[in-house]
Write the structure tokens for this entry.
Amino acid sequence: MTSFEIAALEQRIQELESENARLQALFTADAGRRARAETALAESEERYRTLFNSIDEGFCIIEFFDGPHGPLSDYIHIEANPAYALHAGIPNVVGQKVREMVPNEADGWVELYGDVLRSGAPIRFERELVATGRHLELAAFRVEPATRRQVAVLFQDITARKRAEAALQEINDTLEARVVAALAERKLLADLVEGTNAFVQVVDMQFRLIAINGAAVQEFERIFDVRPKVGDHLLELFKDLPEHRSAVRAVWSRALAGEEFVAVDEFGDVSRNRRFYEMRFSVLRDATGEQIGAYQFAYDVTDRLREQARLREAEEALRQSQKMEAVGQLTGGIAHDFNNLLTGIMGSLEMLQTRLRQGRFSDVDRYVAAAQGASKRAAALTHRLLAFSRRQTLDPKPTDVNRLAMGMEELVRRTVGPQITLEVVTAAGLWPALIDSPQLESALLNLCINARDAMPEGGRITIETANKWLDDRAARERDLPPGQYISLCVTDTGTGMTPDVIEHAFDPFFTTKPIGQGTGLGLSMVYGFARQSGGQVRIYSELGEGTTMCLYFPRHYVGEAEAVDPGWRGAPMASSTGQTILVVDDEPTIRMLVMEVLDERGYAVIEAKDGPTGLAALQSNARIDLLITDVGLPGGMNGRQLADAARATRPGLKILFITGYAENAILSSGQLAPSMQVLTKPFDVEALAGRVTEMVEG
């Protein structure tokens, strides 16, 4: 290689090195610009993304593609901001195809956005997205170049606005009709108020009339001779009628104080026609609910009240007639039975007197027995009448009704006969009842006899006890207070009762048995005993299906552990001497008999004919071990008052009441005080002697 070639090569190398340095300088400068461009692009993209995610409107970019329905027949969401789900109501739409999202609406959306893609012309429109029920306001434009097949959509939810526009349109469409209807309604109400027979008045809080209908004006003028008008002070209208002014002030003041009520009162000048009015007062309020006055609807009820009074008089006359009919039935039955009994007594005594005069003593015992038998039947009849009237003398004690029912089983079995099957079903843990055991035994036997008579061909009688809780409804059905009761029921498989027989079953002397086979007092006695004991009796029966008679008695809470054996009848009679007994009775015959019985048994006896005489003996220094007194006494002091006065001076005195019926004066709070007992008239002299011995010796 020549020196020239070497020099040329070195020159070329230098040129290349210079070019390389230049190129290297250029490359270094270009890299800086590229870095700055990339930084600017990143910042621009960040601003776009922030704007994209922050704008309130929904935004998305959709891209069309050829689908099964043809070219450009479907599109997919390739971008969507968070507000998309807020406005459209569809979350996570990126990657979803429109025909999968809203298949029933896809054709409409594809057609709209397809026109934008093909024409390049932007559009603005409103449309309902049926799938979510949202009304949307939308704007759409093509993303260039057209070959990208993309459309951008910007939208917002205008559902609330559309609904408000629809409501406003409806209001505008119906406003005229509603105004017409309101005016018609107001006119109708005004016509009704003017046309009604009610007297309508409205006052403000200062008693000033702000409305009054024509009927009220005319009635006001008719009864007070004053014609009121709107604007008048109500109380000033009565300035010459002070009596009515105070009454009007009183009732209207209640209404203006906020009270709504109905009052009936009489108004009108005494010299004119006074009438009775039913006045309904109500509070008048404004749109905010604040009271601005009161109004009154008044009706003339004079004729109605007179008619009601006439009806009450007619009902009272009817009740009195029914009472007299019942009394007639009762007295007729009593007269019939007592005439039979008195005939037997009087006839036996006359025959006894005749035989004694003749000296034929062999027949004396027969006539005495006949007179005693008739007397006992008369006593039994009186007892039944007192039981029906709830006036019999009861001696209630805590009683185990299960034990009583089981104790009666053998007696009932013998009474009803072998053709009747008897079953006694007792409840476990039955509560005690405070009742007169002998009277309950009598009632139970009576019910079983009635059941037997209802089964002439034989059948079954079931005696059953149970504890009963009676709520308000059940207690009302039985005419009892709600609470705890024990029931004693007798059920038969007999002929049953018709509703008419059930209605009259407890009436005195009512019977379905043939003449001579029943007095008609059995069930009335049971009813009276149950009611007097604080209980009830009810009949449950169907014709041909048998009958259940149920007795209900209140549960006894006090002294439950002291429930007694109903078979107990007291201590045997014993004689004694040295004691003094005071006998007080206004009937001389009774005093004579009682004194002779006591004298025969060795007692010293003091007698008194009335309360004051007996009290004088009690306040003396005489020894008195027992007071026997009738309850109904003359002289202004009954037997109970005498006993209380005696206890004041002789606290430990024993007292025996003898009475024909249970006067309220005997009992104090439903119970006799300690060391007090009752003996019912008529009584056997042996029963009297036994009771006296029991009390004196006890």
